[in-house]
Design goal:
Elements (H helix, E strand, L loop, with lengths): L2 H19 L9 H12 L24 H32 L2 H26 L12 H11 L2 H13 L5 E8 L4 E8 L10 E7 L6 H4 L3 H8 L5 H12 L1
Antiparallel strand pairs: 1-2, 1-3
Helix pairs in contact: 1-2, 3-4, 6-8
Length: 245
């Protein structure tokens, strides 16, 4: 691989990763320092995607999200998406070299699946914080929720209902839709299906069974109720501010 191509892959992937990881809980210092830290979390020196560390201890969300689930979910499941995304991208590069475009078609599906899983999990971890620090939506986030959903309670009811009724495995998502400049609540089947192009995820809840089964078994609704008790609303507000500007 040429130096220019390698540099492009590294900086391009870093830019995507930084936009997803910001605002990363615990970053401090000058903007330049923060940006460099975000790039380090996004990719390694080879331009490969990397698993971002949790911004809190495994047990920080107890009793709502248990430590054992957090370890399995972050260290194994999320890491699997990172590895799958890197493998798909590497495989496509080899396939292009060999002119095997039929293989690229299959690998593109894997890149969509693993890449979407990586992106949503990177947001998911930062969307949470210990319950004593969670609070409620406020400021511009609260005003936008009230504008688009009538009230915070109406939004919460819609978000819970949408997440609870995802068919099979997937996500409930609060996103900013830039064309209409409004907040929307979406479902995602798997990671990549039923999306809206251009919509930016602000708050996501993972409703794959691996996210809650150890503690909640088949009680998805109870898990979602407890997820809402550990939402980092400051993180959601910062994401909204960033995309609106």
């Amino acid at each position: 691989m040429s130096a220019n191509r390698r540099d492009f892959i590294k900086t391009g992937a870093a830019a995507v990763g930084a936009s997803l990881l910001a605002p990363y809980t615990g970053l401090a210092g000058t903007p330049d320092h923060d940006q460099a830290r975000l790039f380090a979390l996004a990719v390694n020196d080879a331009g490969e995607y990397t698993l971002p560390p949790l911004p809190y201890a495994y047990e920080a969300l107890e009793p709502h999200i248990d430590a054992q689930t957090m370890r399995l979910h972050h260290d194994i499941h999320h890491n699997g998406y990172v590895k799958g995304l890197n493998a798909a991208l590497k495989g496509m590069e080899t396939a292009r070299t060999n002119g095997d475009y039929a293989l690229i078609d299959r690998l593109a599906q894997k890149a969509a699946f693993h890449g979407s899983g990586h992106i949503l999990h990177a947001v998911f971890w930062q969307n949470m914080i210990s319950a004593d620090k969670s609070g409620t939506p406020k400021g511009s986030l609260k005003r936008q929720i009230e504008k688009d959903f009538r009230s915070v309670s109406a939004f919460t009811a819609q978000f819970k209902g949408t997440a609870a009724t995802v068919e099979g495995s997937g996500w409930g998502i609060l996103a900013w839709e830039p064309l209409g400049r409004r907040l929307v609540v979406l479902q995602a089947e798997k990671h990549q299906n039923l999306t809206q192009w251009g919509a930016v995820p602000l708050l996501v809840v993972d409703v794959w069974e691996h996210a809650y089964y150890l503690k909640y078994q088949n009680k998805r609704g109870e898990y979602i109720d407890n997820f809402l008790r550990v939402v980092n609303w400051d993180d959601v507000a910062n994401r909204l501010e960033a995309v609106m500007s």
